Amino acid sequence: MNEAVFQRCIHPHCGGIASLADTSFHCPRCGGLLDVAYDWNHLTPPKSLRSFEAKWAERTNPLSFSGVWRFRDLLPFAAPEKILTIGEGQTILQKTDAVAAYAGLKPGCLFLQYEGLNPSGSFKDNGMTAAFTHARMVGARRAACASTGNTSASLAIFCAATHLMRAIIFIGSGKIAYGKLAQALDHGALTVQIAGDFDDALERVQQVSGRLGIYLVNSINPFRLEGQKAIMYRILEALRWEVPDWVVVPGGNLGNVSSFGKAFAELRDLGLIPRTPRLAVINAAGANTFYQLYEKQGLRWNRGRPEQATIDGYMKQMDAANLRASTLASAIEINRPVNLPKALRALEECGGVVREVTDQEMLDAKAQVGAGGLGCEPASAASVAGTKKLRAEGVIGSDERVVCVLTGHQLKDPTATVAYHSADPKTFEEVLGKRGVKRASFANRAVQVPNDLDEIIKAIEVYA
Ligand code: F0G
Questions:
Q1: How far does residue 168's CA lie from ligand 1's centre (Å)?
Q2: Which ligand 1 atom lies nearest to the CA of residue 256?
Q3: What is the Å distance from ligand 1's center to 84 Cα?
Q4: C-alpha span between 65 and 84 (Å, rounded)
Q5: pLDDT (tens digit, 9 = 90+) per residue, 416-458?
């Protein structure tokens, strides 16, 4: 099997190749990003997407139960006995007309892909099972990541559940939501808090893992992105294999959009879907490098030769101004996305757009998602806020079918949620006001009542 699977430089003109077992995750020729590549002539791709339905009857087999590995014919880099799964990917696609109305879409047009249902509460488990499997294939004993919280929670849970590796996580100071930090600590990860932000932590973890030979699970690792392709397979499955018009996703390190673009391009090239959906990436306004470069400066994939001077110039400008990412949506508080070139390629493949949304817009959208019956963290709601914006601009039509990916669970960041709904102006100001959030238009405040039966009954009759 192995000669049919290898790693390949994403830049077509480079032609750099690395073996399946290579863990440097950089092209040996040009230093660029790598893809996991398949020679389909020597593999057995599925004949149709419907063929995956047979897996539903095999749910007692953990590989068929997994929402990632039941699609293993589309990420065939591991022998079945090497695969490590903790039951990831049991997620749902929920049609929601209340949120559709908020975003300006007709009933039946908006779907939320709820990745908060994963074992660690975010989409990261889709990629972690794949990276872990690769780590096991190469005999790694330690795995590391820099994280805004969810990657670290996912790495920590996989290490704790399998006892096959030691988790080492790098986080920035004061840059991680409490729920996520709680997970890493509870699952026993070695947690290194560095004086800096995510961009600093990511640079350091790459240096450290290179020096100490530790397996890196950040999304620069192309095996992570192979696992995340399955989120798109599950969306197609839930839509009975019909392709939606749009997939909208928050953008941080740009791993998701890169992975989604690869998933759809492969399905199209294998003749399994007739067209790709369009992709929309939503940045936080306080961490909007991708938006700036793609929409304002016109940076494009350009057949594998994106204008490096544009990227370098922008980064230099950020350094000169000491501009640091700053948003309440800590999951996407990232100014130097490592997957930038892959994301450009994905947008070219799938007719993509990028938008930015403010913390205010995200929190309002988050409250609407909550009132609509699913709970997500602030960063995840960027997808709904972005859809609303694209709808208002007329880029998305009111009767197009749109899937917003809700990347992480509501309980990841209870601080922001409680502050939004809080009746206490001091709490609001401390958590949200100082970040520029002015109103909580959809707040659901707790009702204060004396400890008196008549007063309690009166309050209930007034409000419900
Ligand atoms: N949404 C959530 C909830 C996330 O945790 C992240 C990334 C993203 C969106 C952005 O995804 O990087 O694929 O564009 N979190 C990383 C972490 C960086 O460390 O947990 P992306």
A1: 18
A2: 13
A3: 22
A4: 12
A5: 999 999 988 899 999 999 889 999 999 999 899 999 999 999 9
